[in-house]
Amino acid sequence: MSVPHVSKPVEFGDPKFGDFCVEYPNGLVDLSRSNHLDQQEHSGIDTTEEPGAQPGSSVTAPTLRAGQLDIPVTGDKTVRLDTDKTAFVIIDMQNFFLHQDIRDHPKGLACVDPLMKVVPFFRDNNIKILWVNWGLGDDELSTIPPSLARGFNANHGYRGFGSKLRGEFGRVLIKGEKNTELYGPLQGLFEDGRDKGTDFWIYKNRMSGLWNQTPLEDFLKENEIKTLLFAGVNADDCVLGTIIDANHKGYDCILVEDTTATTSPDITYQAVLYNAGNTYGFVTCTDKILGSQSS
Asked: What positions does the domain Isochorismatase-like occupy (predicted)?
């Protein structure tokens, strides 16, 4: 089940604040915030209605412009992005969640290869790459709510935030420790992008990267980012939490399916996909992204 196509062009949002999107009957959802419907009606495009047609049904989707990208999504639709206002948010692809010496997460490891392919594509299209990761300072340990601390005190061979892990992984989710580094080749992928100025490391101290006035939100506001593509683990915890908060704060949300995973039962992941595509935004995959169209 997916959101049905509109029967005529519809503009969502309030034009007075410049925050809007336009959806067209052909399945295009224009998130670029570059074309109001009333602008098109006065742009020289023939908008003469056929007899019996619904008002506005003859308005056609605008032509793809420079700096825009059309990405197919589920439901036989396409989203149009302004690449300058878009970021790829990769959440918690860290040793703590993926390394086989700490836990067994084969579905999470399966996300690594798609990320290695799609990150360079996004860089080439001027989309910022944001690696949003757990990383606590000692001064933050006392600020963790009891409910969250209890959840991270499970039977995984450690005793909560800041406790010592086996081997050389250091203390649980503390900045600078090996367990908070990105897993395997992803660390090198980040460092390459960091040196090029395309990738940014952003710490978080809760499940959601946008739970309050956070470093992630500061970055998004400073860079006037409006559209977010999401990857990472776990899909039903930190990824979904960030998507929900992003949706509440007015960001466009697009989940990249084959770059997200969870250790929870599959029915949980299916619920994430359903809500991501029907309530919070859209769902796509790396094959669709790599085959997407730019001007």
From this structure: 86-286
Task: Give pLDDT, residue 23.
Answer: 97
Number of domains comprising the chain: 2
| Mean pLDDT estimate for the chain | 92
In a domain, 69, yes or no: no
pLDDT of residue 154: 63
Question: Of the candidates 80, 115, 127, which has an alpha carbon nearest to the alpha carbon of residue 293?
Answer: 80
Question: Three-class SS string for 198-215?
Answer: CEEEEEECCCCCCCCCCH
Report the length, in residues, of the chain. 295
Instruction: With a cut of 70, list the residues of the chain below it in pLDDT.
Output: 1, 39-58, 154-158
- Nearest partner of 88 among 32, 130, 120, judged by Cα: 130
Contact 182, 133 (CB under 8 A): yes
In 3D, which of 119, 127, 45, 59 has the Cα closest to residue 294? 127
Look at residue 226 in the predicted model and tell me its pLDDT. Answer: 98
In this prediction the pTM is 0.93
- Within 93-203, where are the H helices? 95-98, 106-109, 112-124, 146-151, 185-196
Residue 194 CA to its chain's centroid (Å): 19
